[in-house]
Amino acid sequence: MRQPADILCIGSVLWDVIGRSASHMAAGSDVPGRITQIPGGVALNIAMTCARLGLRPALLSAVGRDVQGDALVAECASLGIETRYLYRSDDLPTDRYMAIEGANGLIAAIADAHSLEYAGARILTPLEDGILGSADAPYAGQVALDGNLTTALLTRIADAAAFASADLRVAPASPGKAERLLPFLKTGRATLYVNLEEAGLLCNTRFEGAAAAARGLLERGAARVLVTDGARTACDGRADGLIEATPPPVLVTRVTGAGDTFMAAHMVAERHGPEHRRADRADALARALQTAASYVSGDTAL
After folding, report:
1. At what angle do helices 278-297 and 258-269 cross, to 10 degrees?
2. Alpha-carbon distance 175 to 194, whole Å?
3. Chain centroid offset of residue 9 CA
4. Which of helix, strand or coil describes residue 263?
5. Beta strands across the sheet bearing 14-20
6. 232 three-class SS
7. Which terminus of the chain has fewer Cβ atoms in its 10 Å neighbourhood, N or C?
8. What pTM did the predictor assign?
């Protein structure tokens, strides 16, 4: 088996169609703005940030053999992202995500990740057939996993021998999919990256801040959690203690992909393994918050 990349990014790889306006918006608003189509999806957002920060990421996902899929794969390759392990289907269209953002944040979004869900466990074949790993010789590097996979597949991954040696990091993709991460609370095998709302959904309660949410998730069985709360204090929680930090203040110009950027930057900052001194954890959290702040302010290129 070969070590093809520094990090495996598993989950949604699709086209983001984003409409942005400088106006405050509400339901039914009709305002001028800009509409862009860019590579996106949680797994791909993480891979793109890792590539910008100097790593060699590889994607495990489903992409159609349609015009949109060919263009997306070519774009990924141009960014330095390994695409050879993608599941390419003649029958499934390339997935898409559509969002509307105003001056008051995300107004609405629809994720069409049906092809990824339908492909199911086929996207994991390289981790099980010996190309990247197997049950007898599991992949031992960093893995970023997103909650756009089905609950059944995430449950399988939470217990799978093929992931037993991985530094597994998991994000829910959206509040509506947060409960798909419950299997990882039961096994306690992964680091979870959630926002305050997602933490509350996983614990079936509401938290006043990131530190309280981190404690709640640890009590529910999580091995480690990173909880963000927009511009307010974030928290890195483990059994040996909590570390808090506040993001630098910036003018927010975009929000889609901010959480993915934070997760990727944090993983890059922790490239030296899962065990860190408290100061190292504090530095990684601060660096990730700074990177995410630069992204939402528009200082980081798409």
Report:
1. 150
2. 9
3. 8
4. helix
5. 34-40, 14-20, 96-102, 105-112
6. strand
7. N
8. 0.89
Q: Phi and psi (nearest 5°) for 61?
A: -165, -175
Q: In what order do the strands lie in the sheet with 167-171?
A: 57-60, 7-10, 142-146, 167-171, 191-195, 224-229, 232-238, 241-245
Read off the tokens for 184: 């990882």
29 close to 102: Cβ distance less than 8 angstroms: yes
Identify the band that residue 274 occupies on the pLDDT scale cut at 50, 70 and 90: very low
Answer whether residue 1 shows pLDDT above 50: no
For the stretch 183-188, contacts whose Cβ atoms lie closer than 8 Å and that sit 24 or more positions apart, written own/partner, are: 183/151, 183/154, 183/155, 183/157, 183/158, 183/159, 184/154, 184/158, 184/222, 185/217, 185/220, 185/221, 185/222, 186/158, 186/221, 187/158, 187/159, 187/221, 188/221, 188/222, 188/223
Instruction: Tell me the one-letter amino acid at 44.
Output: L
Retrieve residue 45's tokens: 């957002």
CB distance 158 to 186 below 8 Å: yes
Task: Report how far Cα 278 is from the mean position of its chain's Cα atoms.
Answer: 24
- pLDDT > 70 in the chain, percent: 95
Which three-class secondary structure string do you get for 96-156? EEEEEEECCEEEEEEEECHHHHHHHHHHHHHHHCCCCCCCCCCCCCEEEEECCCCHHHHHH
Unique residue bearing structure tokens 């869900």:
117
DSSP annotation of 75 reads H
What pLDDT is attached to residue 47? Answer: 96
- State the angle between helix axes of 258-269 and 42-52 in degrees (0 to 180), rounded to the nearest 10: 50
Q: Any idea what the Cα angle at residue 291 is, between residues 286 and 295, rounded to 5°?
A: 145
Structure confidence by residue, pLDDT tens digits, 108-135? 999 888 999 999 999 999 999 999 998 8
Assign 33 a pLDDT band (cuts: 50, 70, 90).
very high
pLDDT at 276: 47
CATH T-level assignment (fold) for domain 7-297: UDP-N-acetylmuramoyl-L-alanine:D-glutamate ligase (3.40.1190)
